[in-house]
Design goal:
Blueprint (H helix, E strand, L loop, with lengths): L1 H13 L20 H10 L3 H26 L11 H25 L2 E10 L5 E10 L5 E10 L5 H14 L7 E6 L2 H7 L2 H11 L4 E4 L1
Parallel strand pairs: 1-4, 4-5
Antiparallel strand pairs: 1-2, 2-3
Protein name: DUF4371 domain-containing protein
InterPro entries: DUF4371 (IPR025398)
Length: 214
């Protein structure tokens, strides 16, 4: 399991996709099975533990195929393998929560931080809202972190404000040291910089906010 987690961390750090078109270990050995399985397969060349585990999974898949025909060929066998899409997603979610927790702690211990928010449509034409934090630590070093990416139901000021506020509160973000908010969209800036929104943010943050256009 440790090697599976390390592989997930490595792919996430490099920004690489996980999945492949055909992910069965007993199908065409020349087929690209995706970065996750191919990385483990590469690791197995030098690591006997990984090699033994993959061989065990191949045997399970072969047995499942013999018993269930083509129906059994779609899965990875009936036993736990730690190679499934569900396992990958669970590990990704756990790591994501841990990273977010560390960012929130850093915000709580910083000298000051700024909120960065931006929306952009995805390929299915749904607005995706990214929420980031620019943090200045106690040594004066500045860093930026992605806190969350949410699908926005709309682009009206109140809708975006509520989504940002709800997301930050749910993560336990402290507003006491929030000194600025920045946006990469002039229209979004105009919507959120209205008098009503400005007063709402002051109430949440207990400090005047500097609105800037990045």
């Amino acid at each position: 399991m440790e090697r599976v987690v390390d592989t997930v961390v490595h792919l996430g750090k490099q920004g690489l996709a996980f999945r492949g078109h055909r992910e069965s270990l007993i199908d065409d050995p020349e087929a690209n099975k995706g970065n996750f399985l191919e990385s483990l397969n590469y690791l197995s060349t030098y690591d006997i533990t990984t090699a033994n585990h993959l061989e065990k999974v191949r045997n399970q898949q072969a047995m499942s195929r013999r018993k269930g025909g083509e129906k059994g060929a779609k899965g990875r066998g009936s036993k736990l393998t730690f190679l499934s899409n569900d396992t990958q997603n669970n590990v990704i979610n756990i790591i994501g929560r841990e990273i977010a927790s560390q960012i929130v702690k850093e915000i709580g211990n910083c000298r000051a931080w700024a909120l960065i928010a931006d929306t952009t449509p995805d390929v299915s034409h749904h607005e995706q809202l990214s929420i980031c934090a620019r943090i200045v630590n106690r040594n004066g070093k500045c860093s930026e972190h992605l806190l969350s990416c949410k699908r926005a139901s709309g682009t009206k000021a109140m809708e975006l404000y509520n989504l940002i506020s709800k997301t930050l509160v749910s993560k336990g973000v402290s507003f006491g040291k929030l000194v600025a908010k920045t946006y990469d969209d002039e229209r979004m800036l105009q919507r959120l910089a209205s008098d009503h929104q400005r007063e709402s943010w002051k109430t949440c943050c207990f400090c005047p906010l500097l609105c800037t256009y990045a």
